[in-house]
Amino acid sequence: MGLLTGDMLGPLAVALAVFLLLLDLMQRRGCWAARYPPGPTPLPLLGNLLQMDFQNTLSYFDQLRHRFGNVFSLQLAWTPVVVLNGLDAVREALVCHSEDTADRPPMPIYEHLGFGPHSQGVILARYGREWREQRRFSLSMLRNLGLGKKSLEQWVAEEASCLCEAFADHAGRPFSPRALVDKAVSNVISSLTFGRRFEYDDPRFLKLLDRLQAGVEEDQGFLHEFLNSIPVLLRIPGLASKVFSAQKAFMALTDELIQECRMTWDPTQPPRDLTDGFLEEMEKAKGSPESSFNDENLRMVISDLFAAGMVSTSTTLTWALLLMILHPDVQRRVQQEIDEVIGRVQRPEMGDQTRMPFTMAVVHEVQRFGDIVPLGLPHMTSRDTEVQGFLIPKGTRIITNLSSVLKDEKIWKKPFRFYPEHFLDAQGRFVKQEAFMPFSAGRRVCLGEPLARMELFLFFTCLLQRFSFSVPAGQPRPSDHGVFSFLVAPAPYQLCAVPR
Ligand code: HEM
């Protein structure tokens, strides 16, 4: 230490600064490629991190889109990022180059939850064998569990009845529907993952939902991005547990539920749920250390499905109810169609959809207008890829601005209005739209799409068959502007549910 005299500190600092700048330039050399997308000038080391508006990323991206066009770049510390906007660019990347853009960027922050080479879950798994195994497994369980003694459709229909009872308990008085919808949707995913539902006032259930919600909030903002960009900071003892305390608590509760399933699992019987199916695969994979069917991954896969399946569907249903109280004429037309096709007594079924074009159009328009996952999930290029004439080098993080597709002014007649006619032809028949991409597209397209569609249709029709919804008397009309966090949800609101 005695060697470090005051005279030496100056040159040492200069040498360190030069070293860091050179390292910084090395890390960013991909951006100098010819035809690399334009973007705002990055600062040394931090890139554009300080210019990013993490509170309002969507409008920041909108400004950059106007300045640089549909394909622009950013530098988040040493992570190169390309943002794709509009149907043409997003479709070209996700559909035409589906394999080259199917990877996910490394997310070192999730190592504190148990993310590792053979325990990557599904959502954030790198594009490779582990992801393929788990995606195929989850999809086949979703399909096959519907064939068991109680079909998935039956689970959803019965849960919709429970939700209606809970709405009826409010006896027409104003209430906020969000918490009840969360519980109903969670019970559907719980039936799939753990083969059970919870009573709506079960303290453990309430804690699970509370920690899940808080965990989603931990997944956003500057600190999240900063720690992911400079993961060495997570080595600071206790930091990860403090910053991600809700996610840790959610995982601990998931572990408990898995353990309960494990104790009653009978390997000689067909799987009751996804956990049983996974345990069965683990038995088969005994002796192959490379398999992704292991204890650590069981909790990652289950928590992935639970979180992805609950938050998104529940947020969409909350949008649906809000839009019905804001557009009573649309609500009346849906109820009229329900009365004509299903009546007031019989339970709605998935088969009714084909005879309910208006309701189908409304559910689709709720998803388009609600636009709940505006920036999708991050992708990464696994080889140099050309999009709209720009070159995106291998290893670049890609953000698909799904919102710019769902509200593309070149495609939708009234992109910023709730307008179910977007999905109807002149004869009132339901029409699909290519730019309807709330579940994204390509190889990583949402694997829960069929389940989500089933839940949206059955919950929505059951509720509107039973109740008329309205803004409570004397209360101001709620806003239809979403609140942006990781998902876009309506601002909290109250409604009245009056039995029909
Ligand atoms: C309205 C409801 C839903 C919406 C809007 C939605 C939307 C999305 C979006 C935008 C993605 C990202 C796709 C990409 O990376 O490009 C995604 C992925 C995913 N979703 Fe959904 N989702 C919904 C419901 C569900 C449900 C019910 C489940 C569970 C059963 C689920 C499970 C997943 C999984 C596991 C992934 C990751 C897929 C992969 O990386 O291969 N989602 N979802």
Automatic annotation (TrEMBL):
<dbReference type="GO" id="GO:0016712">
    <property type="term" value="F:oxidoreductase activity, acting on paired donors, with incorporation or reduction of molecular oxygen, reduced flavin or flavoprotein as one donor, and incorporation of one atom of oxygen"/>
</dbReference>
<keyword id="KW-0503">Monooxygenase</keyword>
<keyword id="KW-0560">Oxidoreductase</keyword>
<dbReference type="GO" id="GO:0033076">
    <property type="term" value="P:isoquinoline alkaloid metabolic process"/>
</dbReference>
<dbReference type="InterPro" id="IPR036396">
    <property type="entry name" value="Cyt_P450_sf"/>
</dbReference>
<keyword id="KW-0732">Signal</keyword>
<dbReference type="GO" id="GO:0042572">
    <property type="term" value="P:retinol metabolic process"/>
</dbReference>
<keyword id="KW-0479">Metal-binding</keyword>
<dbReference type="GO" id="GO:0009804">
    <property type="term" value="P:coumarin metabolic process"/>
</dbReference>
<comment type="similarity">
    <text>Belongs to the cytochrome P450 family.</text>
</comment>
<dbReference type="GO" id="GO:0042178">
    <property type="term" value="P:xenobiotic catabolic process"/>
</dbReference>
<feature type="binding site" description="axial binding residue">
    <location>
        <position position="446"/>
    </location>
    <ligand>
        <name>heme</name>
    </ligand>
</feature>
<dbReference type="InterPro" id="IPR001128">
    <property type="entry name" value="Cyt_P450"/>
</dbReference>
<keyword id="KW-0472">Membrane</keyword>
<dbReference type="GO" id="GO:0090350">
    <property type="term" value="P:negative regulation of organofluorine metabolic process"/>
</dbReference>
<dbReference type="InterPro" id="IPR017972">
    <property type="entry name" value="Cyt_P450_CS"/>
</dbReference>
<keyword id="KW-0349">Heme</keyword>
<dbReference type="GO" id="GO:0020037">
    <property type="term" value="F:heme binding"/>
</dbReference>
<dbReference type="InterPro" id="IPR050182">
    <property type="entry name" value="Cytochrome_P450_fam2"/>
</dbReference>
<dbReference type="InterPro" id="IPR002401">
    <property type="entry name" value="Cyt_P450_E_grp-I"/>
</dbReference>
<dbReference type="GO" id="GO:0005789">
    <property type="term" value="C:endoplasmic reticulum membrane"/>
</dbReference>
<dbReference type="Pfam" id="PF00067">
    <property type="entry name" value="p450"/>
</dbReference>
<dbReference type="GO" id="GO:0009822">
    <property type="term" value="P:alkaloid catabolic process"/>
</dbReference>
<dbReference type="GO" id="GO:0062189">
    <property type="term" value="F:anandamide 14,15 epoxidase activity"/>
</dbReference>
<dbReference type="GO" id="GO:0019369">
    <property type="term" value="P:arachidonate metabolic process"/>
</dbReference>
<dbReference type="GO" id="GO:0062187">
    <property type="term" value="F:anandamide 8,9 epoxidase activity"/>
</dbReference>
<dbReference type="GO" id="GO:0062188">
    <property type="term" value="F:anandamide 11,12 epoxidase activity"/>
</dbReference>
<dbReference type="GO" id="GO:0008210">
    <property type="term" value="P:estrogen metabolic process"/>
</dbReference>
<dbReference type="GO" id="GO:0005739">
    <property type="term" value="C:mitochondrion"/>
</dbReference>
<keyword id="KW-0408">Iron</keyword>
<dbReference type="GO" id="GO:0016098">
    <property type="term" value="P:monoterpenoid metabolic process"/>
</dbReference>
<dbReference type="GO" id="GO:0070989">
    <property type="term" value="P:oxidative demethylation"/>
</dbReference>
<protein>
    <recommendedName>
        <fullName>Cytochrome P450</fullName>
        <ecNumber>1.14.14.-</ecNumber>
    </recommendedName>
</protein>
<comment type="function">
    <text>Cytochromes P450 are a group of heme-thiolate monooxygenases. In liver microsomes, this enzyme is involved in an NADPH-dependent electron transport pathway. It oxidizes a variety of structurally unrelated compounds, including steroids, fatty acids, and xenobiotics.</text>
</comment>
<dbReference type="InterPro" id="IPR008069">
    <property type="entry name" value="Cyt_P450_E_grp-I_CYP2D-like"/>
</dbReference>
<feature type="signal peptide">
    <location>
        <begin position="1"/>
        <end position="33"/>
    </location>
</feature>
<dbReference type="GO" id="GO:0005506">
    <property type="term" value="F:iron ion binding"/>
</dbReference>
